[in-house]
Amino acid sequence: MSKPGKHLFLDILHSEGVEIIFGNPGTTELPLLDAFVVEDRLRYVLGLNEVVVMGMADGWAQATGKLAVCNLHAAPGLGNAMGMLYNAAKAGAPVLVTAGQQDMGIRLTEPLLWDDLATMARPLCKWSFEVASIEELPRAVRRAAKVALTAPTGPVFLSIPGDILNAVAPDDLDIGAPTRIGAAVRGDAAEVARAAELIRAATNPIIFAGDCVANRDAFAEMVAFAEAVGAPVYMEGMANRAAFPSNHPLFAGTVPRMTPALRAATRDHDLVISIGADLLTQSQATGVEGLEPGKRLVHLDDNPWEIGKNFAATAAIQGCPKATLPELTALVAGCGAARRAGVEAKIAEAKAALLAKAEAVMDAQPMDPLAVLKRLGEVMPEDAIIIEELLSSGMNVVRSLLPATRPDSWFGMRGGGIGVALPQAAAMQLANLGRPVVALSGDGSLMYSAAALWTLAHYKLPVVTIVFNNSSYRILKQRTRAIGDHAAREDRYPAMDLTEPAIDFMALAAAHGVAGVRVESIPALIEAFEAALASDAPTLIEVPVARAI
């Protein structure tokens, strides 16, 4: 039986394993919304703007590994979503982004809201295409799903004109079937053997673990490899996932996203081993190379673009960490036995110093972020999912203070575009009903996507949002001061204070239907946090923290 395009589209998505469409509708999407009147297999989840919608789709894709679908409205809707689409691209989130296009019959007149959507989206997507007929729709959706879910995964885009959603498909139209390309590709045997030789010959190796480890379900394989090598394990500079358990004695923390920091961390090591890690997305230009010239590097990743992108790899292995690490681990087994105890002792000493530093400021007023994070870490549920967007309050220490012991326990802002925490938390709660979901956000970041609070309330998602409020863009103040010019001398930072008036987060929460609590001390914070965890509704906890830079 022939069907209109709107039902055909939903049929295909359902067969591709899609469960939710995250959207904010407009006129060109109305046929699709009309189809949802009788659709009982897929769910439409509403966000109040495209930042929220795209962030939710990104979060769902990362949390589940399944294809997420984000439905936007024409050119302005796609434009509004581009910042969050950038983050999804950097995180490798398999998202099918669709935008309702104006009818094909009037596109040449350049109607209101029209633009070349496929060209707009192309720089941030693995594949971008405008569907020109009902006959093209099945093949386009099938290809988009296949491309998004093929390693290295990432977003794809389809522009779908409204008249195609209303058009009736021919009776004999073949709607195809899903294609999935196996991701467990083993690295080249010769390169694996070469990497093993380098590792066995090294006297003081260092390991960087990246998102690819968690994305490919290689958590256990990563741990076995690190224990065999007996080397400290750092997260990549723009760490997004939990690629190594933070409670493991070889977990050394994170390296700042600055080349001098990477160079300092690797200086005394004669071999750098990157397992799916980014080497290195810099936050700012420093005039210093991240690795010393000639530093030997073993680099394993399923994305050939990343291997040797910035630093020559002595052993370059394209392959899935889950499929390749066991072979490499077997070849280097026992090589780190003699040094492992010393490495672990050094890491333990550094962590003890951090914990002591945090304990020393436990009674500070306003609250010190170190103290806040330490106490939260002590009461955080073991199965919690943490979405972290703390630019200045937790930079480079938060993973050492809060637990990240499972590959699905931690998500961050991989692309660096702020405003991700709340939308991602909403989707991750939808994907993990029954598990605690905790969003940690700065005050400036939260304001980029505050409308997501409504989605939390509307769908009764018991996310606990903790906003670290320093009433400023503190990280920008720090970096402006580092320039060493006018701001440093006069201690003035134009356009970086969120005051006069101060943002009333309690009123903001109430306006969106979310319970709000402002705390002034660490004991009050823990009391509010535990109450929020026990609630079946969303809670926003405001934590005023020190403004000093």
UniProtKB/TrEMBL annotation:
<keyword id="KW-0786">Thiamine pyrophosphate</keyword>
<comment type="similarity">
    <text>Belongs to the TPP enzyme family.</text>
</comment>
<dbReference type="InterPro" id="IPR029035">
    <property type="entry name" value="DHS-like_NAD/FAD-binding_dom"/>
</dbReference>
<dbReference type="Pfam" id="PF02775">
    <property type="entry name" value="TPP_enzyme_C"/>
</dbReference>
<dbReference type="InterPro" id="IPR029061">
    <property type="entry name" value="THDP-binding"/>
</dbReference>
<dbReference type="GO" id="GO:0000287">
    <property type="term" value="F:magnesium ion binding"/>
</dbReference>
<feature type="domain" description="Thiamine pyrophosphate enzyme TPP-binding">
    <location>
        <begin position="399"/>
        <end position="543"/>
    </location>
</feature>
<dbReference type="Pfam" id="PF02776">
    <property type="entry name" value="TPP_enzyme_N"/>
</dbReference>
<dbReference type="GO" id="GO:0003984">
    <property type="term" value="F:acetolactate synthase activity"/>
</dbReference>
<dbReference type="InterPro" id="IPR011766">
    <property type="entry name" value="TPP_enzyme_TPP-bd"/>
</dbReference>
<feature type="domain" description="Thiamine pyrophosphate enzyme central">
    <location>
        <begin position="192"/>
        <end position="328"/>
    </location>
</feature>
<dbReference type="GO" id="GO:0030976">
    <property type="term" value="F:thiamine pyrophosphate binding"/>
</dbReference>
<dbReference type="GO" id="GO:0050660">
    <property type="term" value="F:flavin adenine dinucleotide binding"/>
</dbReference>
<feature type="domain" description="Thiamine pyrophosphate enzyme N-terminal TPP-binding">
    <location>
        <begin position="5"/>
        <end position="105"/>
    </location>
</feature>
<protein>
    <recommendedName>
        <fullName>Benzoylformate decarboxylase</fullName>
    </recommendedName>
</protein>
<dbReference type="InterPro" id="IPR045229">
    <property type="entry name" value="TPP_enz"/>
</dbReference>
<dbReference type="InterPro" id="IPR012001">
    <property type="entry name" value="Thiamin_PyroP_enz_TPP-bd_dom"/>
</dbReference>
<dbReference type="Pfam" id="PF00205">
    <property type="entry name" value="TPP_enzyme_M"/>
</dbReference>
<dbReference type="InterPro" id="IPR012000">
    <property type="entry name" value="Thiamin_PyroP_enz_cen_dom"/>
</dbReference>
<dbReference type="GO" id="GO:0019752">
    <property type="term" value="P:carboxylic acid metabolic process"/>
</dbReference>
